[in-house]
């Protein structure tokens, strides 16, 4: 047995996207497309560290009542024209 560990990085952005089966009749693949998907992917690959969840301003605004966040500032993401405000999810908020 090995002592290998799984590390996960997650980037989440909320918004509109296109999803469906794309390709030819002989080979269809379900996929998602759009700027929302691109931002989420860039957050995961360029900002999130090992075992971190990072979110955009849109997702932060939608979930700030549920989680504790640490602001990470604005980040320039490859292929995205404007800098994106980024937050790291720290934990669930305590129920009151």
Count of all domains = 1
What is the share of helical residues? Answer: 10-25%
User: At CATH's second level, what is the architecture?
Assistant: 2-Layer Sandwich
Question: Sheet bearing the most strands, described?
Answer: 4 strands, mixed
Quaternary structure state of the chains depicted: single chain
CATH superfamily: Nucleotide cyclase, GGDEF domain
CATH fold-type name: Alpha-Beta Plaits
Q: What distance separates the N and C termini?
A: 44 Å
CATH class reads: Alpha Beta
Order of helices and strands: EEEHEHEE
If you compute it from the alpha carbons, what radius of gyration comes out, rounded to the nearest whole angstrom? 16 Å
- Principal-axes geometry comes out as globular
Strand content: 35-45%
Put the structure in a nutshell.
The protein has 2 helices and 6 strands, in the order βββαβαββ. The chain has helices at residues 35-47, 57-63, and strands at 9-12, 18-24, 27-33, 52-56, 67-75, 84-92.
Overview of this structure, please?
Helix content is about 20%, strand content about 45%. The chain is an alpha+beta fold and about 100 residues long. It has one domain: Nucleotide cyclase, GGDEF domain (Alpha-Beta Plaits). The strands form two sheets. A four-stranded mixed sheet has the order 1-4-6-5. Strands 2-3 form a two-stranded antiparallel sheet. It is globular.
């Amino acid at each position: 047995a090995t002592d290998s560990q799984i590390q996960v990085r997650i980037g989440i952005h909320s918004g509109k996207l296109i999803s469906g089966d794309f390709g030819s009749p002989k080979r269809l693949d379900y996929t998602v497309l759009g700027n929302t998907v691109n931002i989420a992917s860039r957050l995961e690959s360029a900002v999130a560290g090992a075992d971190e969840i990072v979110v955009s301003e849109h997702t932060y605004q939608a979930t700030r009542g549920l989680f504790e966040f640490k602001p990470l500032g604005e980040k320039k993401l490859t292929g995205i024209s404007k800098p994106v405000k980024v937050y790291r999810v720290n934990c669930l908020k305590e129920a009151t």
